[in-house]
Specification:
CATH class of the domain at 142-267 in chain A: Alpha Beta
Structural class of chain A: alpha/beta
Number of strands of chain A: 11
Distance between the termini of chain A: 52 Å
Strand content of chain A: 15-25%
Oligomer: homodimer
Radius of gyration of chain A: 19 Å
Largest interface: A-B, 28 and 28 residues
CATH superfamily of the domain at 142-267 in chain A: NAD(P)-binding Rossmann-like Domain
Chain lengths: 289, 289
């Protein structure tokens, strides 16, 4: 049986640290404040933003969800981001994705100032990931950061390990490939045009699925030695409407050494990263002011 | 026998295009102007900057080398960059690397405004490489850009091909891995901590060596089918003082399908990229003014 890499005990531990840091900031008159811009009422987005708000409040931070109408004009949308960005009370800000079609062309990551970009989408923050300069002020993309936190927590040293990432998005695959390369892993970044995907994943020590296809990775993609570490970034629904990942968990769990569950795995780590970025942003902004 | 991917005919063709574009800009009162900051008298750097100046002048652009003393203070060095950056006559600017030890900690790429950053080192330009948004205004790192130009010129489609890059620098390996990923190649980014390097390169359709070790890659690193495309980014000197690459050319040339020579390969493509970036920067700045 594989070791199940559950987020819950990790999140509990780190949340306690964040609560302390938050209390310290509050003692100095700074209440970490996250503002979320939510356009429309896309049900999963409503749920995600609620979960994020609950988590931030749980560590003692302030969180407000600013709701905009689905039909909001581009002008008003951009002005709203600018106005929140300029609010000195706000330390972190992000726009919940996906956006309605009419706004989907806007690269919101570049509209949020890099020092408040708790999603880690801004050029300056991605540059830090690329260059390996992820020091005190870097706000690292939440999902990749959460995966690294999880691996480190379980003392999984990636040095010299081969990692196959499936999915080349700017939010997960690309920044994660850079973070893992900086940590001395050898990363193969796979995608929809990759040929011989199974050969690559079978040869990998760690397989990270960020494809967006329900139960895509089954045991045929894994080495026969049952030593693969499987990280599942996907959030999908299967044919029966049940939440599932990009990995066919039931098929894979007896054919790997470690596996992250869905739900309760990478998704929860992502919210933890967001909170870590908020506290980091609030601390940095407090120091600079 | 492998096809030798010589830069010279490609450079000749593209230089003619650049000459025309330069003439057009000059007809509109804009003389593309590159300024190079050279600290000290490191002999290879003196040669490189001279070669770059000669090439820029060959296409009709203006190029000046601003020489600073090796002992220049950090303050004066940074002020010099700022002053050149603010000069409205200057369209492109870069600092010849390596810098003397006392200045080596400075990330000069971030001191040059992104719109004049013809080296492609600025966060905004690397972000464009990462996101795949390498449109009209993007200034792409010169060596990776030169390699892509060479592959495209030879109609080598990288879609679905497996590429092993050896070397994870911010100047070559990392941006090149992103450019090739954006072009649908499946890239494995290898480095000094990679285990089973030979296994990876033997399985690759394209091997790109950017390690900085003379003649490191020999035929043992290549597939037996002699179909590998070998790109050599290295500029080293062998035991007898002769210029050579990271690839043992004599050992490899009969065991691959294509190979770039050193000298006369990637190095010359890099200077072409610099000139392309200069003309692009001058055109963009002219449009914006």
């Amino acid at each position: 049986m594989a070791t199940v890499l559950k987020a819950s005990p990790i999140v509990k531990q780190y949340a306690a640290d964040l609560k302390q840091e938050c209390a310290k900031l509050k003692a100095n008159g700074i209440t970490p404040f996250l503002k979320v811009i939510l356009v429309g009422q896309h049900p999963p987005s409503v749920t995600y933003t609620k979960n994020k708000k609950k988590f931030m409040e749980g560590i003692g931070a302030k969180c407000e969800i600013l709701k905009l109408d689905e039909q909001v004009s581009e002008k008003v949308f951009i002005e709203t981001i600018a106005s929140v960005a300029n609010d000195k009370e706000v330390h972190g800000l992000f726009v919940q994705l996906p956006l309605p079609k009419a706004l989907a062309h806007i690269d919101v990551g570049q509209l949020v100032p890099s020092e408040k970009d708790v999603d880690g989408f801004h050029a300056n923050n991605l540059f830090k990931v690329l260059s390996g300069d992820c020091g005190e002020k870097a706000l690292v993309s939440c999902t990749p950061k959460g995966i690294i936190t999880m691996l480190k927590h379980h003392k999984i040293d990636v040095t010299g390990k081969s990692v196959a990432i499936i999915g080349r998005s700017l939010i997960v695959g690309k920044p994660l490939s850079m973070l893992l390369t900086n940590l001395n892993a050898t990363v193969t970044l796979c995608h929809s045009r990759t040929t011989q995907l199974k050969e690559i994943t079978k040869g990998a020590d760690i397989v990270i699925a960020a494809i967006g296809k329900a139960k895509f990775i089954n045991k045929d993609y894994l080495s026969d030695d049952k030593k693969t570490i499987v990280i599942d970034v996907g959030i999908n629904y299967d044919a029966s409407g049940k939440l599932c990942g990009d990995v066919d968990y039931d098929d894979v769990e007896n054919h790997c050494s470690h596996i992250t569950p869905v739900p309760g795995g990478v998704g929860r780590m992502t919210i933890l990263s967001l909170a870590q970025n908020l506290i980091k942003a609030a601390s940095s902004l407090a120091k600079d002011s």
